[in-house]
Amino acid sequence: MTAAELPPLVVGFDLDMTLLDTRPVIGAVYHLLAAETGTHIDVDAVVGRLGPPLADELANWFPAEQVPAMVDRYREIYHEHIGAQQVLPGVPDALAAVRAQHGSAVVITAKHPDGARRHLDAAGFEVAELVGSAWADGKRAALAERSAAVYVGDHTADMAAGRAAGVYSVGVTTGGCTAEELTAAGADVVLPDLTGFPAVLDEFLRERRLAALRARLAELGRLVVAFSGGADSAFLLAEAVRVLGTENVVAATAISPSLPAAELAAAREFAAGLGVTHLTPGTHEMRREGYRANAGDRCYFCKAELLDTVGPLAAELGIDHVATGTNADDVVAGFRPGIRAAFERGAVTPLRDAGLTKSQIRYASRELGLSTWDKPAAACLSSRIAYGIQISPAKLRRVERAETTLRAALVGAGIPVQNLRVRDLGDDGARVEVDADLVAAVSARPDLLADLTDFDTVTVDPRGFRSGAMNELLPNPEVFR
């Protein structure tokens, strides 16, 4: 399997005592069964060893011929007590962490599917799939069938199933098994509860994805990196140099009116620090009517111009591949017409292929000592012009002047801005976006905004900076996909 063929992320979770404390529910049902049948049942013992199938547990208290009827009665009255369940610590954040990694959470449990579904619904948990009535080898099979990467459980049988399926197994001691028992059964890591799971998942996936990235780069052999100077393309360039050597990697930064001068200088310095050949071809987006028109698909024409310029340069050098810094977050972010243009022109996306997210790229960049690890997002200047307002070099220079002036003023006033945008809304009006926690401080200093003399009116966006803010003004982004 190549890095580009990595399967989608699937994370399996056990249910009882992993996601939910179901002991109050189970205990109440066993007490009722004992009362109805007059059979002595040690309920404390039952709830202390949750995990095995229901019929196996009932066989400890009833003759074999009565067990099927007791299973039916148990399930009949079970739903009446589900409200007594408790969500275990860290569970909502653990499920959210899987979604943040663009993965699917699958519950794989020995519990009957109907009862398990009632539990999930009562807790408000949304999972991609529920596999019920799975125990021991059934869990192994379910994990293997879904090419799961991780399984989380509280029982030694969960860890054994994970080990047999060849997945990364995370044990939690919220059930009856100790850390030592879980480790001996095959746990790769053991946690007291799921509070620490997001960090564990991120570390596991980051190492896995970095290995996939390096394998993908090795497959490509030689590479031209479309190097904007941002955190993503800078990391890709640095990793390509590490894997392939400077003789097999070329950086290409397009020069056009939409690239701030400071960004070009920083890109040159970064490439020089790596010792890599750095090409700076001129691009001519302004010659493309679709770009100048600045409709919702402007980025398509920008990326098309970039690849139509860099692609022939790569061919002249005998290099088959041009890579962009597209990451795994980009491809699920929704409105990205530039990605389509790059795909149509055969650009490769090693970061995306490896599944690396923006936060993982920043973390790995910091580990490598790259100066770009915490660099704020720096989209091209055209992204500051409201859709429908025609792009021109004069408008781009006006926005660049405004941002340079305002950033200097904010720093001078002791306001430590990181992300800053001056959005040209037309009719000589502008909207300023800064980091959300700085909105109040900037709003309180209208004198600083007065320095933006290229615009008649300037307001501060109360929601703060967010990438793609101009897309919010599009009535129907779907038509530009």
From TrEMBL:
Q: Which domain of life is it from?
A: Bacteria
According to the UniProt entry, its GO molecular function terms are: sulfurtransferase activity
InterPro entries the record matches: HAD-like_sf, HAD_2, HAD_sf, LarE, Ni-pincer_cofactor_biosynth, PGP-like_dom2, Rossmann-like_a/b/a_fold
Instruction: Name the coiled-coil region(s).
Output: none
Q: Show the Pfam families listed in the entry.
A: HAD_2
Q: Which PANTHER family does UniProt cross-reference here?
A: EXSB FAMILY PROTEIN (PTHR43169), NAD_GMP SYNTHASE DOMAIN-CONTAINING PROTEIN (PTHR43169:SF2)
User: What protein name does the entry list?
Assistant: ATP-dependent sacrificial sulfur transferase LarE
Q: Which organism is it from?
A: Actinocatenispora comari
